[in-house]
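Input.
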Amino acid sequence: MGYREIWQPYREEVEERFPLVMGRLEQVGTEETVPEPYQGYFRQAAAFLRKLGALEEEAASGNWEEKSLEEMKQENRLLYEEILPEHYGKSYGNPEYAVKEMGESYGKLLSMLYADIRSLIPYAFEGRIYDITIFSELLVEIYNAFEGEEVPEEHEIQQILYWFYHDYGEVFTETGVMAQTSPEMDFYTRIIMDSDLGDLRYLYRYGAYITENEIRTAEFLNRMSQEEIQAMADTYTEGYRIGFEVTGKDLSKKKFVDLRYPIGFERMMRAAVENFEKMDLQPVVMRTGELSFSGRGNGGGSVTSVSPNRQYEYDHKADKAVYLDKAFVERRLEVLKTAYEGRKKEAAWYAGPAVIETFGEEGFEPKTNPHAYQFDEKQQKLNVYYSNMAMQITNQYIKGEERSFTIIAYPIPEIGPDYEGIFAKTVEVNTLDYKLYQEMQQKIIDLLDEGEKVRITGKGKNTTDLTVALYPLKDRAKETAFENCVADVNIPVGEVFTSPMLKGTNGHLHVTQVYLNGLKYLDLEVDFKDGMSCRYSCRNFETERENQAFLKENLLKHHDTLPLGEFAIGTNTMAYRMGIDYHIQDKLPILIAEKTGPHFAVGDTCYSWAEDTPVFNPDGKEIMARDNEVSILRKEDAQKAYFNCHTDITIPYDELDCITVQRKDGTQADVIRDGKFVVPGTEPLNVPLKRE
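Output.
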């Protein structure tokens, strides 16, 4: 069964409905049965859906493939033009504009719907006529409500939206599980494997917004030798394989590898797919779209391109607030369990994600849009509840102790004129001699294992003063508290990390500027008491209320408090030097940035959902610090143990004073002093830190 065959039952279900609703949308464009100021909105939304319907038919017939590169480029621009920053001020996708035109209640609701309609663009290319049909019918139903003698009540429109997502949520959920467990859903795999990658028209087959970043990336990779491409693919796929090996997980039980990659990297991905096939792994791609249902703006897509407008995504990240209640959540969980139960055998074959990230975009400082939806306190708790319960369900069918992952990052052209040099340097950083680092990191671990606590202090404007309590070892000859992390699941090489004990972990964490999950934080401060965050602040916005709301949503992920789930010391001073030399410190992704200084993760530990699986360092010692006082509650109630988030906050070397091991007998020893490594045998790590 192939991709088209999987979707055929859905196509047949709407075979008669599709032309009927397209005809009705055409009438919307000429009728005057809806009063202003709403008529303009409905005409524009109807025209957009008709455009998507025509695009789907064009792609399905093969006529799309006949277009020239320039024609495809122009059409792609037209599809996304309305929400580009220069036009966003007058787009119905902008809640502020929609409210200005249609009033507070209807403006917010209809802007939310408009964003979901716009999310269907890739579906037109994927042949998902079912989705286009049901959203068209939804728009017509709401349009009909406005045709009466009186404008409908806001609650009536909200209820139409509520029952739409309640009823069709079953399809959205089943589709997500199907994509995770069905290599036959090979739309993206076929782009990778069958396209003429020298003909850049293939980039537009995704339906995603294509910028100069994707075009220049593809051109750059096309100029590389096959040996260079193969070496990049080997680093990526070997990291994945070794991740199973070092954690004692049996890869031979698995059949599916979840590919996550940026558009433009298809040449590398083709070599990677061939490598995975030699491991008897077939690719699956879990593209779930960017509907409000699946968490728009939360990085849900597996195949990515540079966003046309990050403020647009930020404005619509909480659109689910329109229909999020307890009944909706319980129904969604029920459907998720049913979907996994129906594909129980296939779910067990899922091995985990193999991820390529990119970096180099200009930093994004979100602006508060007072007309955008926000979750109320009850909905925040429901989001937390759903995340916890959904992870428990997933873990029943895709067991944490049996899956793994790998992740690697490369720059995009937007990083600046030194793009090719930075790319080459990144490849070098990604392939450093892990044996050398393994040996130096072991010396650091040996010292850390002598301590009962570690104190970290900042210097200059950095006011960090934090003491971290370490897991008490019973037998240092066989046990360790820190993992010696080299280049396997987490590329590049370069950190030692632990799950701190919460009791006794106290103090103040501060970073003057940091990007976390693509968002910029200014003067981020978090205080901890017995390992739990007890105060947090930043200077992103003018008012304390805005700053607190921003942190509660984006750092604490709607939790009232989070534990310190990880303490690590990054050792990849080569990556740090790369950031300095190319002036890209603020553009390094967390994957690399976390290796360029000590970092602290708020949320779950690195071992969440797999704490009972023994893990060993290369020296044979078992890593004992896999739990803390919160995660151990999983034995009573998993909902109390996990937060389903893990956000790394790194202090760069130039803001760091000391990292000091405090022994039980009161003696102390430095790992880092004045921002330099001082453990004997780690001197090579300081070479890149010396300024020329």
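The mean pLDDT is 94.
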